[in-house]
Protein: Adenine deaminase
Organism: Pseudomassariella vexata
Amino acid sequence: SPLHPFLAALPKCEHHMHIEGSLEPSLLFELAAKNGIALPVDKDAAFASVESLHARYQTFQNLDDFLGYYYIAMSALVDAADFEALAYAYFAKAASQNVRHAEVFFDPQAHTSRGVSFSTMVAGLKAAQRRAQAEFNMSTELIMCLLKHLPLPDAMKTFEEAKGAGYFADGTFAAIGMDSSEKPFPPKMWEELFVAAKEAGIRRTTHAGEEGPADYVVQALDVLDAQRIDHGLRSVEDEALLKRLVEQKTLLTLCPLSNVKLQCIGSVAEFPLRKLLDAGVRFSINSDDPAYFGGYILENYYALQDNFGLTIREWEGIAQGSVLGSWCSEERKQELL
Ligand code: ADE
Ligand code: ZN
């Protein structure tokens, strides 16, 4: 498309990417060797080499098939320098694609369960954030995600630990979110956590409507009072919900290449971009897990452009909505607009 150079130059915000999902096979093998972590090659031959793992990433049956690889790969992250290397590599790549503001998810329970402390993760991630600010003039935030496949008390304990350490009060974490396996774990299960976060004045988002139905998005709004919805793809199946998202200016953080790779949709052409645009829903376009899904943010923009041929004016509207939906200071918003 003749708009590719325009899209590359367009200042972008990213709101939906899991930092562990930017762990490229090459860095995974490097860190596993350094830390003496054995990958389960006896159980899955895909772990034999960078090439075989990369080949395995070309096809995922569904969300859980992907998550199996995602949680094993992140076990190579051990010390603060590993988290710094991971996050810095993502920030550098994002900066090269003109991301000016990035809000990054991480999954603390997947690390504390292996004996990696909160302070280790935070030290590494913060070091990378300082470098992104200094070297790329990129603003960044961390969103602490809790895992849906673990019990509520585990999420509560992790939330209380982060809150007790002052990570929300001091701005280290901008918000909480929820991710991992979706269908068996409807949003209403997490009411206690979201009530506690709201009472503490903490921002709230959750993955919903990726594989799960539009009703999970409704639950996220009704029961969790989520201020943002990650994916929300299947919201298009409920006209009343679409109207509500428009009225409330709720940001959907969409990830088209992820949706294709996880077989939520058959192809980018099936992505409901026109429906969301025409309804006036506020959304941003994001990479989700770029090391697994074959593209960073710009490849997601390109894929939409190649399939839907948006106008410059439409892209400018999307870019503006993604600034307005960002969790940064009002002052930073003005700079980004
Ligand atoms: N964790 C990492 N990527 C995810 C996704 N796309 N959905 C749910 N949980 C995730
Ligand atoms: Zn995600």
Observations:
- The two ends are 25 Å apart (CA to CA).
- The chain is about 50% helix and 10% strand.
